[in-house]
Amino acid sequence: MLIVAALLTGLAKTAIPGLASIAAALYALVLPAKESTGMMLVLLLAGDLLAIWTYRRDADFKLLRRLVVSVLTGVVAGAIFMRFVSQAQMRKSIGIILLLLVMLTIWQRRRKLTNIPANKPMRAIAGALAGFTTMVANAGGPVTSMYFLACKFSVKTFLGTTAWFFFLVNLSKLPFTISLGLIQPQHLQIAAFLVPIVLFGALAGRALARRLTLAVFEPLVIITTVISTLPLLLA
C-alpha cells in the first residue's frame, strides 16, 4: 500500500494534483494518522524537486507572492489544529477533509465554475484553505486546482505554478512538522526506500500528461477518493 501511495504521490506532482488526496488516505491507513503526514511530507518534497525542475520556467511567480500571507495563515492554523487533536480525531479529520474537497470538486464541475474572478477575497480564501488542508492532510491539490483554473492559466503555467506553489508550501510546513514530532527516524528509513518510487511516478506522470486528458482522470480520481475516505471515517 505504501508503494502504491508513493507512485500516486509522484504522479500527483507532474500530472494530476488530485491524486495526492488518495495517497494521503493510503498513508493514513498504514501509519498513525499524524505521523503519516510527516512521512508523506518528506516524499512530497522529493517529488517537488523534480516537478520544479521540469516546470522551472513556467510559473506565475507574481501570483505566488500574493498568496504567501494567506497560505502561511492556513498552515499555522493547521499546525495548531494538529497539536490539540488525538490520533482518532486526526484520522477522521483527514477523511472529512478529503470528502469535502471531493464534494467541492464535483460542485465546481457541475456549476462549471472556471471563470471565477481571481480577486483578493478569492485569493485569500483559496490560499488559507490550501494552507490548512495541506498542513493537516497533505491534500491542498483540489483547492489550488480550482483557483488556478479560475485564473485561466495555460497548461504549462498551470502545471508550473502548481509545482512551485507546493514546493514552497511544503518547505514552509517542514519546521512545523518537525516541531510537532511528526517526522521520526523510523519513518525516514521507510521514506528513503520510497523516494525512488516517488521519482519514478513523477517521471511516469510527466509522460502520461502528454497523452491523457484531465477529463479522463478526474472522474476516476473523484470515485477513488470517495472510496478511500470511508475507512478513515469509520475507523
Automatic annotation (TrEMBL):
Q: Which Pfam families match?
A: TauE
What keywords does the record list, in alphabetical order? Answer: Cell membrane, Membrane, Transmembrane, Transmembrane helix, Transport
Q: Which domain of life is it from?
A: Bacteria
Q: Which GO terms describe its cellular component?
A: plasma membrane
Q: Which InterPro entries match?
A: TM_pro_TauE-like, TSUP
Transmembrane residue ranges: 36-55, 67-84, 90-107, 128-150, 162-183, 190-209, 215-234
Q: Membrane topology per the record? A: Multi-pass membrane protein
Q: Where in the cell is it found?
A: Cell membrane
What family is reported? Answer: Belongs to the 4-toluene sulfonate uptake permease (TSUP) (TC 2.A.102) family.
Tell me what this protein is called.
Probable membrane transporter protein
Organism the protein comes from: Actinomyces graevenitzii C83
